[in-house]
Design a protein that fits this description.
This protein has about 475 residues and is of the alpha/beta class. Helices cover about 35% and strands about 15% of the residues. The chain binds adenosine-5'-diphosphate (ADP) and alpha-D-glucopyranose.
Length: about 475
């Protein structure tokens, strides 16, 4: 079975969030199960630097994808990801080789040509999945991820001998909505620009196109699969999603248990495992030292690693930060995003030196050290398609406090005397998304933290849970099989 996995980011090469982690780990798991899976990735500068042995497979000046006439110089290269999965890189310097971020410029504004950048990306994916491909390797299934590859199923719909598509939604809040005037420029027929197609309230929606034209839709947790069919979390697409509910499956993300393993994590000050937890305390001290917090083994340390966005509920944490440190507790934050939030976080840390510490930016090593060194992890997301950090934190013996939404419900079991006794408890879940409920949940966590024996029992349950990709990768494989049979 041959599968083309189309993703705009893949860990450890290029990452802005969980999509990269999933793209890296899921493709690796599928390969180990015998699927001949290849990734398609845009040739950002980081990608070209990280994969020096790329070979030329196609020059698009000789084979313009889908009849594009005015294409800037572009080529298709082939290499191998560090985990061993083959990767096609779409090398188009004019589109992908620039400073700034992969979606945003250096001022945090969306690149003005994102429709063209990811339109071309989607188009090349469709070419590879159809009879137009000059390559010998032809996928039986094209697996698209988020809006950046959302147009692929639409292009394929109008092509000869198209492979069936799976469209995975990692976050419905990002849809790739652009002016309708771009339809011809992107090489789409006007025929697709209708409510039963790629049109979304008069604009062109990349994600809607994917959701409409893909043969199957998945999203990253069973709870989120239900939530996106409601007005509250459907972001305007709930009608289409509930109409397609027979073709919509929620498959819970797994985690890369090698990359996120406290017993062998190069980013940590000390390794530890559920059998020998002594190293966790050493990581806490290392974290306190690195971040300029008072070095104190006893005081509970609350950790956050997050995109700074409304989705993640950070504003609610900031609202109660002073109450949190009065409990007493320390707070460490790592993240970037919304500039106002970044400023607020830094101001708060400045005001409470030694008790609150923050690093604004993207730092892989610090994210691992926070998972290991914190006692409790906070993740009060307003909505969360799946979420990975709450799983990482459990694996690192750092029980999370989470809002009851999406994948957080599916991966964290609220700690009560009963759930602790049955060996199911794995964190603290609060129902209402407000400061009082979050505060109450943290209080519950801190109370249990004082009871060393119970806390240890909770950590043991967390660390011994299975978050591997095993059953989820099988579920994706089954979807591929069903599509091929059809
Ligand atoms: P989302 O994809 O919505 O941001 P997830 O929980 O699925 O949320 O995944 C986020 C991923 O990005 C995790 O691997 C997390 O550790 C990482 N991450 C987020 N912000 C940072 C940061 N500032 N520095 C390092 N890693 C980060
Ligand atoms: C998105 C979601 C997050 C999910 C990740 C990977 O970024 O916000 O909840 O874990 O994708 O699927």
């Amino acid at each position: 079975m041959q599968v083309l996995f189309v993703s705009s980011e893949v860990a450890p090469i290029i990452k802005t969030g969980g999509l990269a982690d999933v793209s890296g780990a899921l493709t690796s798991a599928l390969q180990q199960m015998g699927v001949d899976i290849r990734v398609l990735l845009p040739g950002y500068s980081k990608v070209l630097k990280a994969l020096p042995d790329l070979e030329l497979v196609l020059d698009f000046s000789a084979h313009p994808p889908l009849g594009i006439t005015e294409l800037p110089p572009s080529r298709l290269l082939l290499g191998t990801l560090p985990g061993g999965v083959p990767v096609y890189v779409l090398d188009c310097p004019e589109m992908y080789l620039r400073g700034g971020g992969i979606y945003l410029d250096e001022h945090g504004i969306d690149w003005a040509d994102n429709a063209q950048r990811f339109g071309l990306f989607s188009r090349v994916a469709a070419m590879l999945g159809s009879a137009e491909s000059p390559l010998q390797w032809r996928p039986d299934v094209v697996h698209c991820n988020d809006w950046q590859s959302g147009l692929t199923p639409a292009y394929l719909h109008y092509m000869r001998d198209p492979a069936p598509c799976v469209m995975t939604v990692h976050n419905l809040a990002f849809q790739g909505v652009f002016p309708s005037a771009l339809v011809p420029e992107l090489g789409l027929p006007w025929d697709c620009f209708k409510p039963d197609g790629a049109e979304f309230y008069g604009d062109l929606s990349f994600l809607k196109a994917g959701l409409f034209y893909a043969q199957h839709i998945t999203t990253v947790s069973p709870s989120y699969a239900k939530e996106i069919q409601t007005e509250a979390l459907g972001f305007g697409l709930q009608g289409l999603l509930s109409h397609r509910s027979d073709s919509l499956t929620g498959i819970l993300n797994g985690i890369d248990t090698e990359e996120w393993n406290p017993a062998a994590d190069a980013y940590l000050a000390h390794a530890y495992s559920s059998e020998d937890m002594s190293g966790k305390a050493a990581n806490k001290l290392a974290l306190q030292k690195r971040m300029g917090l008072h070095e104190d083994a006893e005081i509970p340390l609350l950790g956050i690693v997050s995109r700074f966005a409304h989705q993640k509920g950070l504003d609610v944490v900031l609202e109660i930060a002073e109450k949190l440190i009065a409990m007493p507790a320390q707070l460490v934050l790592l993240g970037s995003g919304d500039t106002e939030m970044q400023r607020d976080v830094l101001a708060l840390a400045h005001q409470h030196t030694g008790k609150i510490a923050a690093y604004v930016g993207f730092d892989e090593s610090l994210s691992h050290l926070i998972e290991a060194g914190a006692d409790i992890f906070l993740m009060p997301s307003r909505f969360e398609p799946c979420g990975l950090n709450q799983m990482y934190s459990q694996r690192y013996g750092t029980p999370p406090v989470v809002h009851a939404t999406g994948g957080l419900i599916d991966t964290v079991v609220d700690c009560t005397p009963a759930s602790l006794a049955t060996g199911e408890a794995s964190g603290f879940v609060f129902g209402k998304m407000d400061a009082a409920s979050l505060l109450l949940a943290v209080r519950r966590a801190l109370r249990l933290y004082q009871d060393k024996k119970s806390w240890f029992a909770l950590q043991q349950i967390c660390m011994n849970k299975d978050f591997g990709w095993g059953s989820s990768a099988k579920a994706y494989q089954q979807i591929y099989i069903d599509l091929i049979k059809r």
